[in-house]
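Is calcium ion placement plausible here? Inputs below.
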Amino acid sequence: MRALIIEDEKKTAQYLKKGLTENGFVADVAENGEDGLHLATTAEYAFVILDVMLPDRDGWSIITELRRTGKQTPVIFLTARDAVEDRVKGLELGADDYLVKPFAFSELLARIKTILRRGPTRYPEVLQVTDLEIDFLKRKAKRGAKRLDLSPKEFLLLWLLASHAGEILTRTYISEQVWDMNFDCDTNVVDVAILRLRKKLDEPFPVKLLHSVRGVGYVLEDRSEEDIP
Ligand code: CA
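Reply from A.M.:
I modeled the complex. Tokens:
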């Protein structure tokens, strides 16, 4: 799941990005309002964290423009000012929630989870492919009763593949979805990550779920039925 952070304070932006990445999200950062609006309108994000006070274009005008273009991406406002009218204004303009700085990351995470549960694109919380079960919000994956011990990137990779079960995903698509836009992703990185994931996901189990499609990419599906002659 991809998130956009629009925040000009570098420290806050990096704090947010680090926290989101540790929690299994891919986070892009825009350091000014124009770039932020451009990304928010042209790319698909699960949610946007939007600072109100930005040097060029403020958060109010960004959300107004975003909603005008018909984008319903959930937006959480970050505001340094604890004025009631600011909160009301944000919500009136179409924000989904707001947080007053300084805030604890756990608080933000709780808000994000709530928003993803009720958001316009309803994210399934749990995905199931045969005996594989992945709970996105709890960050848990298991096959049958066995818990899979995955790194955040492996988890995200598995979630991506499972949410497109049966579809072949190209290395390029996978790298775009799992690594952030500033990461110059060699597709070898994808192959290495897949290899690691496969060790945990498939090696201990008789039914293999992760398959390579030569020259294209990868697909997650249960092919065990097809193997029966
Ligand atoms: Ca700011």
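Short version: The chain has a mean pLDDT of 88.
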